[in-house]
Structure formats: C-alpha cells, structure tokens
Specification:
The protein has three helices and three strands. By secondary structure, it is α+β, with helices and mostly antiparallel strands. The chain has two domains: 2-31; 44-103, Multidrug efflux transporter AcrB pore domain (Alpha-Beta Plaits), CATH 3.30.70. A three-stranded antiparallel β-sheet has the order 1-3-2.
C-alpha cells in the first residue's frame, strides 16, 4: 500500500521515470551490436551416391550399408540415417555440437 500511495501522490515523477527507462531500453536495443549473418556451423554432413539403373534393394546392400559401416567409426557422431531409392543412396550424418566436422576422424 505504501508504494502505491507514493506512486499516486508523485504521478509526474513516476511518469518521467517510466519514459526515461523506456528511452534507455530503446537506446540500448538500437546500439546493441548484432551480426547480420553469424557463422553458425551446422553439424550435419550429407553423403549422396548415384548409381543409375539399380533397384533400391541393390543400392542398399551394395552401397548404403558399406558406406554406413565406414562412417560408423567416426568420432563424435550422434546419429547416422540413410535412405535408398532407385539409383540413389542418401546418408545423413549428425555430429555432436562440439565436434568440428573437418577434424572428425576414425
């Protein structure tokens, strides 16, 4: 009650303080340094293999599974997923956020 009564008695002071706080907040927001397009590394690698005219089952057995076995030995891999279609094998590798993709090794 005491704070609300004091605020009602000093309406002008409360109004001026509100305007000053809003102006300072707006000034701080405008002058805040921002980068237009920050460099955020995405920890994904997409491996695509084309083998035209081959059935999806054959692509999976002769290409996708062999590549997945080789990639499974990489350090810092969170998940490996794959998809095989007619004449195409797509493997997605998701790395842990703290791993630099260029330095991932077996």
């Amino acid at each position: 009650m005491i704070i609300s009564n004091a605020a009602i008695r000093n309406r002008t002071t409360v109004g001026v303080l509100t305007v000053l706080i809003a102006a300072f907040g707006l000034y701080s927001y405008i002058t805040l340094p921002r980068e237009a397009s920050p460099d955020i590394p995405v920890p994904y690698v997409l491996v695509t293999t084309a083998y035209e005219g081959v059935a999806p089952q054959d692509i999976e057995s002769s290409v996708t599974i062999k590549i997945e076995k080789e990639l499974a030995g990489l350090k810092g891999v969170k998940e490996i997923s794959s998809s095989s279609a007619e004449g195409l094998s797509v493997i997605t590798i998701e790395f842990l956020p703290n791993i630099k993709i260029g330095r991932a090794h077996v």
